[in-house]
Amino acid sequence: MRERSVKNNYKADFPLLANSDLIYLDSAATSQKPQCVIDALTNYYQTQNANVHRALYGLGEAATAEYEQARKKVAGFINSEADEVIFTKGTTQGLNWIANGFAEQVLKPGDEILISIEEHHSNLVPWQIIAQKTGAKLVYVYLTADLNFDYADFEVKLNSKTKIVALHHMSNVLGNILDISKLAELTHNFGAYLVVDGAQAAAHTVLDMKKFDCDFYAFSGHKMFGPMGIGVLFGKRELLAKMQPVEYGGEMINEVSEQSADFKAAPLKFEAGTQNVAGAIGLGVAIDYLKQVGITNIEKVDLDLSKYAKNKLEEIDGITIYGHNHGIISFNLDGVHPHDVASFLDADDLCLRAGHHCAEPLMNYLKIPACLRASFSIYNDYSDVDALANSLKKIKEFFGK
Ligand SMILES: Cc1ncc(COP(=O)(O)O)c(C=O)c1O
């Protein structure tokens, strides 16, 4: 096993990393899972498995109680009420549901949907489709010269035609975090709704729906130490009452007759069919773990490692850095395609994403086809960044750059 120069106390909690030499620098794609979350999934299937909200026997009632307990845990974590928390497959599903179940009712021809050039395709393509369906127009907020969200441009673009503002909380490429409370206030001044893509932010900063005052907020369990296939859509109670379900089926109804059906109230009206119960319980355990580590500690590690990485990479001639913030650094090695760099890094056990990061309009804006991204979590330390810098130096020599 590789000698580690810095002792990381959290790595031991993550079996995939604790028992290997892998240097995992792709937590923005998905975080590794701590043993407690893996155990919660196994335990559910070994001792608690039953369908929820249907069974009248003890095992089923206990599973329902655990599932609803997980919902309460999420509500506590994001400072909302439990009936404002809908379980989804992940951020993508949540954003599609808002676009199709809510925004489609609100938008008319000529209305505007304001998004930013930094959006992940999950918070962009659903809006393109809804704009095409309703005759609304997509309007973009661009970046400042130092590649930050341009609040001045936002204020210029926001107007009485704006009906939906859909923004990331934390960029998956540049790592910057937006001021959601301020954006909500500006948005509401024009009577528009603020939809937030929280996929990256959920494991990196405090989530407080009451303080943010956004109208909808979507995030994914798998990026915050939880299982894949579970996510959360928060919506303000009065808006969830207006929003239509996008899927229909079992357990979301009060009564069904031959020609029509009457739906339950939120959140159950959105949770049609058998749900990812083990996933929801696993997400609850991931939240316990996150709280135990402490978001403030995570923020400290994020900022520390992205700054350390910036300094290390800047020492290498021919590296262009695009963004470095909150546990993310995106860069290219001039003259070498990022896919080639990623393959060479892999040979040194370094796991890094290379590509357009599901943010093609941003890549076009930056005038690059793709880039590399190192993203950190609490199981990373300086030795991981040192290994990345050393490997990049070797690759640079190999390509004669
Ligand atoms: C900013 C952002 N939004 C949305 C998503 C989509 O998340 P998921 O694939 O979990 O639905 C991602 C995933 O990388 C993301 O980084």
From TrEMBL:
CDD domains the record matches: SufS_like
Keywords: Pyridoxal phosphate, Transferase
Reaction(s) this enzyme catalyzes, per UniProt: (sulfur carrier)-H + L-cysteine = (sulfur carrier)-SH + L-alanine
GO biological process: cysteine metabolic process
Domain of life of the organism encoding this protein: Bacteria
Cofactor dependence: pyridoxal 5'-phosphate
Family matches, as InterPro entries: Aminotrans_V_dom, Aminotrans_V_PyrdxlP_BS, Cys_dSase_SufS, PyrdxlP-dep_Trfase, PyrdxlP-dep_Trfase_major, PyrdxlP-dep_Trfase_small
Domain Aminotransferase class V, residue spans: 23-388
GO molecular function, one term: cysteine desulfurase activity
EC identifiers of the protein: 2.8.1.7
Pfam family, one: Aminotran_5
Function in brief: Catalyzes the removal of elemental sulfur and selenium atoms from L-cysteine, L-cystine, L-selenocysteine, and L-selenocystine to produce L-alanine.
Family to which this protein belongs: Belongs to the class-V pyridoxal-phosphate-dependent aminotransferase family. Csd subfamily.
The protein, known as: Cysteine desulfurase
Organism: Lactobacillus jensenii
Gene expressing this chain: sufS
